[in-house]
Amino acid sequence: MPARARRAGPKRAGRGVSMAEAASRNGKKHPPTRQQHLDLYYFMQLNRQLEDRMVRLFRQNKIVGGLYSSLGQEATSVGTAYALEPRDWLAPMIRNIGALLVKGFKPRDIFTQHMARYTSPTLGKDGTSHFGDLKVRHVVSPISMLGDLIPVMTGVALAGRYLGQKVVAMTWIGDGGTSTGAFHEGLNFAATQRAPLVLVVENNQWAYSTPVKKQVPIRDLADRARAYGIAGMVVDGNDVVAVYQAAKEAVEQCRAGEGPVLIEVKTMRMKGHAQHDPAEYVPKKMFEYWKARDPIALYEAYLTANKIWDAKAKSEIDARIERELDEDQRFAEESPLPPPELAEQGVYCDGCHTIEAVWKRPKGEVVPPKSSVKSEWVVEDFGGLEQEVPGGSPASSAVAVGGDGADGSRARKAKAASKPAAKPAAKRKPAKVAARAKGRR
Questions:
Q1: CB of 76 closer than 8 Å to CB of 21
Q2: Dihedral Cα 108, 110, 111, 113, nearest 10 deg
Q3: What is the rounded CA–CA span in Å between residue 407 and residue 217?
Q4: Alpha carbon distance 282, 71 (integer Å)
Q5: pTM of this prediction?
Q6: Cα 354 vs. chain centroid, distance in angstroms?
Q7: In angstroms, rounded to a whole number, what is the distance separating the alpha carbons of residues 295 and 45?
Q8: Region of 219 on the Ramachandran plot (φ > 0 left; ψ -120 to 50 alpha; else beta)
Q9: Nearest to 91 by CA among 203, 187, 168, 188
Q10: Chain center to CA of 344
Q11: 3-class DSSP state for residue 350?
Q12: H or E element in which residue 265 lies
């Protein structure tokens, strides 16, 4: 099960190694230990078995909100989140239960949350995945509006840098979510500020019932990283080792001040959008193709072939998962529903908790006089198309640029036909500006 990752986007001169070079050495730089290998299996299998149980609870009308399956995508959530350190921050989406488990939430938190029990992280006020933990686990609650977590987590990353915490922020977005305005605005903001943000694009082939090729004219969504001058790469989302190693490299680059990284993981949503969706619009052969690439089955074969475990080690992990799920499901089903009087509590914050910055650097470093700078811009590139040529006269050219299209064709660069030499800038007459609107002459 070799790690497979490839670059999307150019190397940035003077800013360390590119993701292409990083990907080529991932297997050497971040080889998981035996325990880490077993951890990855534990969290993926726990993710799947937990969701299987919740499907049964949903059919018994014990799940009060929506239920969104991550079947077939477990390697994405687990592999990326496992690359973070405890101090780092993440913000999951609806198919990232695996990331929550890696960050320290227990199955009972997931059970009680979706069953709206009083013992849940939100005390039964929310019946889906909208919960987090800002104090201990550093988890920001999901936001239903797709793309909005990107600017939010960019802010978290920048705040951590300002406070000297040396943290990295991570969030996820689906293939359909990359078409939202918030995705582009947030990613541009992160790139401009060189924020330590890892953005994981889960290309699971479908935005509800719309296939990827009907959404965008490119094959690799990671190519969008080029538009913002940041590193991007494509990873086999069903290879948990490849996902972990790519994410680990991205996290290290972010922590080193190299700016944000976009990772596209190619995987497949093996169920409909939610429990109500039978996904009849997905071709059967497509399901068969991806079923043969099930991430857990592939990883089990990899662990066996590389003698990382034996039948006894596997059975012990599986038994542990079964035992933990039995206990936590029983706890959830026996937990009470929230009392009626809770409805009016916690609607507004009236001093019920204190929010204080956690400084990891002297405040004097970010206040005057140390933080003072001259209020002027130093601009090395004036941004024009014209270039000086021998003899002092400017020449201009037009260049067609583009990436690989959906059909694999590459846009060709071409210089425009030569034009008469333009007048030197110093002698050129200023252009007239038509400022009056039509009808107001």
A1: no
A2: 110
A3: 9
A4: 15
A5: 0.82
A6: 29
A7: 10
A8: alpha
A9: 168
A10: 35
A11: coil
A12: strand 261-266
Rounded Cα–Cα distance for residues 241 and 3 (Å) = 6
On the question of a cis peptide bond just before residue 430, with omega within 30 degrees of 0, the verdict is: no
In angstroms, the CA 401 to CA 387 distance is 18
DSSP letter for each residue of 170-234: EEEEETGGGGSHHHHHHHHHHHHHT--EEEEEEE-SEETTEEGGGT-S-S-GGGGGGGGT-EEEE
- What is the distance between the alpha carbons of residues 45 and 39, in angstroms, rounded to a whole number? 10
Question: Do the Cβ atoms of 164 and 193 come closer than 8 Å?
Answer: no
Spatial distance between the Cα atoms of 123 and 106, rounded to a whole number of angstroms: 15
| Alpha carbon distance 186, 184 (integer Å) | 5
- Sequence-separated (6 or more) residues with CB below 8 Å from residue 212: 175, 203, 205, 206, 221
From first to last of its 441 residues, the chain has per-residue pLDDT tens of: 544 566 665 443 333 333 344 444 444 578 999 999 999 999 999 999 999 999 999 999 999 888 888 999 999 999 999 999 999 999 999 999 999 999 999 999 999 999 999 999 999 998 888 999 999 999 999 998 999 999 999 999 999 999 999 999 999 999 999 999 999 999 999 999 999 999 999 999 988 898 888 989 999 999 999 999 999 999 999 999 999 999 999 999 999 999 999 999 999 998 888 888 888 999 999 889 999 999 999 999 999 999 999 999 999 999 999 999 999 999 999 999 999 999 988 888 777 777 789 999 999 998 888 887 788 888 887 888 776 555 555 555 555 544 444 444 444 443 444 444 444 444 444 444 333 334 443
Query: What is the chain's Cα-based Rg?
Result: 26
Amino acid at 408: G
C-alpha count within 13 angstroms, C-beta hemisphere, residue 29: 15
DSSP string spanning 75-111?
HHHHHHHTTS-TT-EEE--TT-HHHHHHTT--HHHHH
CA 51, CA 58: separation in Å to the nearest integer? Answer: 10
CATH architecture under which domain 5-344 falls: 3-Layer(aba) Sandwich (3.40)
Cβ within 8 Å of residue 196, ≥6 positions away? 157, 160, 161, 167, 168, 169, 254, 255, 257, 259, 260
Please give the Cα distance from 79 to 3 (Å, whole number): 12
* Of the candidates 130, 132, 116, the residue with the CA atom closest to the CA atom of residue 339: 116
Residue 411 and residue 400 in contact, taking contact as beta carbons nearer than 8 Å: yes
SS (H, E, C) 119-157: CCCCCCCCCCCCCCECCCCCECCCCCCCCCHHHHHHHHH
* Contact indicator for 71, 272 with CB cutoff of 8 Å: no
